[in-house]
Design goal:
Strand content: under 5%
Shape: globular
Helix content: over 70%
Oligomer: single chain
Length: 242
């Protein structure tokens, strides 16, 4: 149980690391974009190979498809709501001419982190296989997310303390979400965890497509397509090694 909480926190710890890098280091935007592209590829690969492929033959196909699309839809609806509240630029490393909405940034980040952490917690249930590739993908993708967001928040005059509190609290919530995922679902049928995984995969793919790849391409250029492909094939290799 406590391993689930530990690894849920570890996967999101890169949010805090990215914030420290943004505050105390000067990271070129292209480097941020390249890391983001690689992380996007890893997320696409882990969602496909770990979360969806693992469910093949272990849960009703119609349920899997429905939950996958529901996850994507719910993320999209939340994204639309947050954009209207001032959080559309929450992952951008530039100054927001209208000012960032701290609450929207916080809610949007939690919206990304909690489903990921629940999936990590579920993977520690005895009947499941540990999703190492998924944890690596989340760790890597979180780094440029908080890095670029923290740079934007600095430009909007958020204090160092506020920025670190923001990401630190998300790490804690991620750890608790992973613990809850394990505790609440350990007695559920095996198919339930795979259906939840499909829901998370839909949300993650919608997130990567709508928030990570656009900035990666904007800042990094056409090479991000290759880096994303590299992330996908790396995910495939790691999945088959585990």
């Amino acid at each position: 149980m406590f391993q689930a909480a530990l690894w849920g926190g570890v996967a999101s710890l890169s949010l805090l690391i990215g914030a420290f890098m943004a505050i105390f280091l000067h990271i070129p935007k292209k480097v941020v974009a390249f890391i983001m592209a690689l992380g996007t590829g890893l997320i696409i690969g882990s969602a496909t190979f770990d979360l969806l492929s693992e469910a093949e033959g272990k849960a009703d196909l119609l349920y899997l498809i429905s939950m996958f699309l529901l996850g994507a839809l719910i993320f999209t609806l939340f994204e639309m709501f947050i954009s209207k509240k001032g959080g559309s630029e929450r992952k951008r490393s530039k100054k927001n001419p209208h000012g960032h909405s701290g609450l929207a940034i916080y809610v949007g980040t939690i919206m990304d982190a909690i489903p990921e952490s629940i999936i990590i917690g579920v993977s520690f249930i005895e009947s499941q296989s540990m999703q190492w590739v998924f944890i690596i993908a989340i760790f890597i993708s979180n780094l440029p997310e908080s890095l670029s967001s923290s740079i934007g928040l600095k430009l909007d005059h958020y204090s160092t303390k506020k920025i670190l509190y923001l990401w630190g609290s998300v790490v804690i919530l991620s750890s608790l979400s992973s613990l809850l995922g394990y505790a609440l679902l350990q007695d559920a049928p095996e198919s339930t965890s795979y259906i939840i995984g499909a829901f998370g995969a839909g949300g993650l793919l919608a997130m990567a497509s709508s928030t990570m790849m656009p900035e990666a391409y904007e800042e990094g250029g056409p090479i991000v397509g290759f880096l994303s492909s590299l992330g996908i094939i790396l995910s495939f290799v790691l999945t088959h090694m585990s």
